[in-house]
Design brief:
InterPro entries: DUF1468 (IPR009936)
Helix content: over 70%
Distance between the termini: 60 Å
Structural class: mainly alpha
Protein name: Tripartite tricarboxylate transporter TctB family protein
Low-confidence stretches: 95-115
Largest sheet: none
Number of strands: 0
Keywords: Membrane, Transmembrane, Transmembrane helix
Shape: globular
Number of helices: 7
Pfam family, one: TctB
Oligomer: single chain
Length: 199
């Protein structure tokens, strides 16, 4: 039973390491041709719109490779005598308990309020589907609402899911981040972004 759990965990870790690399490879293959098709009004020698997706793809592939090497290489455990081993085990247990208790951020509800008697394991389970729905909504709203509005709403939603700051700080952070990202891509890198309803 323990061996099966360990095998499943190892497969999950390997998949977790491989997915960013595969996504990066897909970005390298698919995105440059789409950028060429949509930005034909730029000069033919311009590779500027392709720069960011290619850099991001290579970073994803590199991170995936480093993580994969780290998982596949066997980790060596330091040799401890019996007194040190007992002390280390107690320290790890108390540290992990402190980490679990400090997961709640200021202003967030406690685990017991969010899950009832489900415990810390299910405390944030509802955030994963909401995060996926939020990103799907962002992609769908990007062309109709425009980059600035869709990005602002998406960042506001992410901040709400993480529950890290007060609402006025969340609005300020989402607005500033959206404007900075828009300026960097639209004005500095001259990459056309969807403008939405207001053209």
């Amino acid at each position: 039973m323990q061996a099966q759990r360990e095998d499943k965990r190892r497969v999950a870790v390997l998949v977790d390491c491989l997915v960013p690399g595969l996504l990066g490879a897909a970005i390298l293959v698919l995105v440059p041709s789409q950028i060429d098709a949509f930005s034909s009004f730029l000069s033919e020698a311009s590779t500027l719109p392709q720069l960011f997706p290619k850099m991001m793809a290579w970073c994803m592939i590199l991170i995936s490779a480093v993580r994969l090497v780290g998982v596949l290489l066997p980790a060596r455990k330091p040799e401890l005598d019996s007194d040190q081993a007992g002390t280390a085990e107690r320290t790890v247990r108390s540290d992990s308990r402190d980490d679990i208790e400090s997961v709640n951020t200021p202003g967030s509800r406690s685990d017991s309020e969010e899950t009832g008697k489900g415990g810390a394991k299910n405390a944030f389970a509802w955030r994963v589907p909401l995060g996926i729905a939020l990103l799907t909504g962002y992609v769908l709203a990007l062309h109709t609402a425009g980059f600035l509005l869709a990005s602002f709403l998406c960042m506001l939603g992410v901040i709400y899911l993480l529950r890290t700051v007060a609402w006025y700080k969340a609005i300020l952070c989402a607005g500033i981040a959206s404007l900075l990202i828009w300026y960097a891509f639209s004005q500095w890198l001259t990459i056309p972004l969807p403008s939405g309803w207001w053209g």
